[in-house]
Amino acid sequence: HASFATSTTRTNSGRTIQRVRPCYPGWSASCQDDPLYKSKMRVPCWHHTTLDCGMFGHIGFDDGELLDLVTSCPCSCGIECGSFSISPSSAPSEEPSGSPSARPSASPFSSPSASPSGSPSSVPSSV
Predict the structure, then answer these.
(1) pLDDT the model gives residue 62
(2) pTM
(3) Would you place residue 4 in the very low, low, confident or very high pLDDT band (cuts 50, 70, 90)?
(4) DSSP letter string, the chain
(5) pLDDT tens, 74-117?
(6) What is the C-alpha to C-alpha distance for residues 79 and 14, in angstroms, rounded to an integer?
(7) Alpha-carbon span 15 to 71, nearest angstrom
(8) Whole-angstrom distance, CA of residue 55 vs CA of residue 45
(9) Cα 62 from Cα 108, distance rounded (Å)
(10) What is the rounded CA–CA span in Å between residue 105 and residue 100?
(11) What b-and-e string marks burial along 69-104, b requiring 16 or more CB atoms within 10 Å of the CB?
């Protein structure tokens, strides 16, 4: 989980300096949870530290609410600033998903099948 994002240092002159540090190694120090944010469930960011924020669309968050949660709570969600998107990318995945898509391909095969299907279609084809 994310570490606390600030550290306090007292200087020789007695001044207190608060320094912001990254929540995770390699992240920008500017990528921080919004301390004033409350999610649709009316809870602050730190309540989301043990949850998969990207899955909140399955429990009633619309795309805007999901994006707002992830961009407001990057440290608690464990999702680096700027790396989350609602819409799919235009580039193909580096690795296959391991399961077929529920949606059929956009176009039919370029060659006809070797034998007819076992049942006729309800709409005649055009010639």
Answers:
(1) 93
(2) 0.55
(3) very low
(4) -PPPSEEEEE-TTS-EEEEE--SSTTS-TT----TT---TTS--GGGGTTS-GGGGGGGT--HHHHHHHHHH-HHHHT--TT---SSPPSSPPSS--SS--SSPPSS--SS--SS--SS--SSPPP-
(5) 999 999 998 988 876 566 666 666 555 555 555 555 566 677 76
(6) 37
(7) 33
(8) 15
(9) 33
(10) 11
(11) bbbbbbbbbbbbeeebeeeeeeeeeeeeeeeeeeee
Go through the chain and tell me how many residues it has.
127
What token pair was written down for 33?
């949870």
Which two structure tokens, joined as six digits, stand for 110? 């370029």
**Each residue of 54-79: pLDDT tens digit?**
899 898 999 999 999 999 999 999 99
The tokens describing 7, both together, are 């550290």
